[in-house]
Amino acid sequence: MTQLLKVRVARKSMLAEAICGFDLVPLVRESLPPFTPGAHIDVHLPGGIIRQYSLCNDSATPDLYRIAVLREAEGRGGSAAMHEIVQEGDVLTIGAPRNHFPLASGTGSSILVAGGIGITPLLAMVQELASARRGFELHYCTRNEARTAFRELLMESRFAGGVHIHRDDGPADQRFDPAQVLQQAPGDAHLYVCGPGGFIQWVLDTATQCGWSEDRLHREYFSAAAVSRTGSDAAFDVVLASSGKVVRVAVGQTIVHALTTAGVEVATSCEQGVCGTCVTRVLDGVPDHRDLFLTPDEQAANDQLTPCCSRSKSPRLVLDL
């Protein structure tokens, strides 16, 4: 179970149009656990809402977690609560940092590509890379200048030559061309991409076409696109390996919901197959993967799944529960 922490909102500020920043600090005589670039925290909000936000400050900064939240007009209520309800001085409950999007070890260079609010985990990465004097390129794609957060920070001298901002409303010659960037990258470089799902897929598909291997591709999604539910969905059984208990999962029901109804608790957070909190080992059966957390290779292995959104292609699925 993720450790829960109490933090105070020390500062709330508008970083760009529809993007609000929050500085979270420990309560008196407490300290915050350290984190590594790419990490995120769960933020518990009124109404039982839990949302994940990437930490975007320098990981070497003691006792500070900084997050930035885009106000989503079509969101599920989390961003609206952060923008409209949470205020400076408020005390929030958060989960300790978890990192499913870490920088690769080694001294190779890094290509970081951000789409919109996807800049947040990559911002922590470039601060780490600059401090370690490791080579990097950050390509930050935004809609327009008003939507470009962290401009002043990214213009600091320590990032000189490594930061490129591409605006949709800017001249054609400054638009982001992933093929050009990826074809020119060193052979040992790693790619990190974060942003809207379609944007991420575009960059990853281009990387694959340019000959990049899967082990050098790293991505983080903030939300999952709705999965089309068709008549092909069928009910199936989940077997708990520890007890042999069989739980029926109905059409239109998630594995997590079926297990919870049967009195079996599984830790969840995003409930969209994005964060990885609920990843569970599969001992038998064939999962129907509907997540954005596992890589294509991990999905192909069929030895784990995200029960918050994935289903089963086989009539029976044995889980390590």
From TrEMBL:
Swiss-Prot/TrEMBL keywords: 2Fe-2S, Flavoprotein, Iron, Iron-sulfur, Metal-binding, Methyltransferase, Oxidoreductase, Transferase
Ranges of residues in domain 2Fe-2S ferredoxin-type: 236-321
PROSITE patterns: 2FE2S_FER_1 (PS00197), 2FE2S_FER_2 (PS51085), FAD_FR (PS51384)
Highest taxon of the lineage: Bacteria
Pfam families: Fer2, NAD_binding_1
Residues in FAD-binding FR-type domain copies: 2-104
InterPro entries found in the cross-reference section: 2Fe-2S_ferredoxin-like_sf, 2Fe-2S_ferredoxin-type, 2Fe2S_fd_BS, Beta-grasp_dom_sf, FAD-bd_FR_type, FNR_nucleotide-bd, MRET, OxRdtase_FAD/NAD-bd
Signal peptide annotation: none
Biological process terms in GO annotation: methylation
GO molecular function, one term: methyltransferase activity
Name this protein carries in UniProt: Vanillate O-demethylase oxidoreductase
Natural source organism: Cupriavidus nantongensis
